[in-house]
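> tool_call: predict_assembly(chains=two)
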Amino acid sequence: MAWDRNQMAARAAQELEDGMYVNLGIGIPTLVANYVGDKDITLQSENGMLGMGPFPFEGEEDPDLINAGKQTITELPRTAYFDSAQSFAMIRGGKIAAAILGAMEVAENGDLANWMIPGKLVKGMGGAMDLVAGVRRVIVVMDHTNKAGESKVLKACTLPLTGKGVVDRIITNLGVLDVVPGGLRLVECADGVTEDELRAATEATIIS
Amino acid sequence: MKKVYDNAEAALDGVLKDGMSIAAGGFGLCGIPELLIAAIHKSGVKDLTIASNNCGVDGFGLGILLDSKQIKKMQSSYVGENAEFMRQYLSGELELEFNPQGTLAERMRAGGAGIPGFYTKTGVGTVIAEGKEVKNFDGQDYILERGIVTDLAIVKAWKADETGNLVFRKTARNFNVPAATCGKICVVEVEEIVPTGSLDPDHIHLPGIYVHRIIQGDHEKRIEQRTVRKREEA
């Protein structure tokens, strides 16, 4: 037993507090929006929007209204639009309370790699480097291991970095870990996962 | 001075030359200057260096300038939607300079604002920092990034008045504002040119001082990822 994608997203949603401005990455992080409940959360989309609404009803798509994943979306009563320089000014300037992002690798010192695999197709970092450098709290949501069963929670990243020492909390299908001086601290195990199982799937140092 | 031109070809007349640099607005296919891109394609001008967050898709947007091999170098943050881009890049036909998205936007903004360089913490400790000056401010490392000034800026807005005051619509504003400011010449295409005086001066997104030439035209406004929800779910 472990958390599935939706359970990971639900757990990540617990990180969000009333009044927060938040940026959600593509993939599992996008699902977090489904679990914020009654909390007053404003979603930022780095292509120039605060107050991102749900997908439009069929026939109401607007080509001038998309999110950072280039998907058609809608606006809300609180929505504000702005240009890309303004968007990244609020990101770089620490105005966004939290970013929830996917990752390929995370290291025990908070290093994050999520934009490039050398020798494979290179798509670009988009806004990820700006987000991890500027947002006040960076939460990674990802599977604990890769398709080959190898740990993605490492002593040191092997892939080109998105940011150095930027991750605060890691939420995986096996549990929740915090980046602290000296390594990672286990916050909780996922339902049905034992601490021994989580440790066995983790290359990084977990301090006790 | 008359800023309104009849069409994209007329607005770019005398502006294009081989080897020039261009800043282009747009994010994905949203808010791209599609009429000006088509006119640049038709002109055959080549060896272009283009600063743009993305490079269109195969067969649309800046992608059509890739197909005709008019682009020498791209300065972008994300190029994942374009197979021809990958082919030309991996074969060495096309130069690519990756910029973090916010760094690219700020490089344009800074260039347009007369700021030749700025320090940012974005990319510190990554490949982006290689070869760049690092400076410590208050215990935090920052890297030096250069402002961008281009020969030409091509921009899409929603409305303009005859003096070039611009209004954008929703998320189609994106890179259009910083791109407009960093071009030595800025050519803008809009959906509607309205009489001077009919835009509320308090609601201008970009003042006409940045805008040199304007055209009005019909836009395809292609959607890249059409995502919807069913009414029953509501």
